[in-house]
Design goal:
Blueprint: H1 6-24, H2 31-49, H3 55-69, H4 79-125, H5 136-149, H6 151-163, H7 166-181
Helix pairs in contact: 1-2, 1-4, 2-3, 3-4, 4-6, 4-7, 5-6, 5-7
Length: 182
């Protein structure tokens, strides 16, 4: 798998959460179909802009959705049939998003484990003490500088930076600190 930006991953995660929200209201009203169509266009565009071949699978689902609304004779398909077709395509979209996300999640598992290990050591050392006067962003950057400077964390940083960029490592650190603080 080619090197993947964490921003793309986070954006795809948000897209997946939006799909979950649409799935929660499926079969309720006609608006579900419109929301789903807008979601498909958005995700397809997002995948295409990031040179991910999976946009074709989303485009295929969008085509099926449009086909379910087209009249083959003089009668437009009833709303009930349209909602049933949309419901099936929603499930297919959910499976497709899981298929798209799986290799990306696997790609970021090792960097996350390294970051968690570094945070556990830092907590044991008493480095994770954030006060409310300090902006969270500044705290994360200061912690990252400590990780890069201290010999205890140096090997972890080297291993981490083989997988992700410096900026992505800071983003991972921010995510993990948020989780760790809870």
């Amino acid at each position: 798998m080619k090197r993947m930006s964490i921003e793309i991953y986070q954006s795809l995660r948000q897209d997946s959460e939006q799909l979950d929200a649409i799935l929660a209201i499926k079969n309720k009203d006609y608006q579900t179909i419109d929301n789903f169509r807008e979601w498909l266009v958005s995700v397809e565009d997002h995948l295409r802009r990031n040179n991910m071949e999976d946009f074709r699978r989303i485009a295929e689902i969008r085509g099926k959705l449009i086909a379910s609304q087209v009249a083959f004779d003089r009668n437009v398909p009833k709303l009930k049939r349209q909602l049933r077709a949309t419901s099936e395509l929603l499930e297919l979209s959910k499976n497709t998003m899981e298929t798209i996300m799986e290799p990306i999640e696997v790609y970021y598992q090792k960097p996350r484990k390294i970051m968690k290990k570094m945070l556990m050591i830092a907590d044991h050392e008493g480095l994770i003490q954030w006060n409310k006067e300090l902006k969270f962003r500044d705290f994360v950057h200061a912690l990252w500088r400590i990780f890069n400077r201290e010999s205890l964390y140096k090997n972890y940083c080297i291993e981490l930076l083989k997988k992700v960029t410096d900026e992505e490592a800071i983003m991972l650190l921010a995510d993990e600190v948020k989780i760790y603080k809870k």
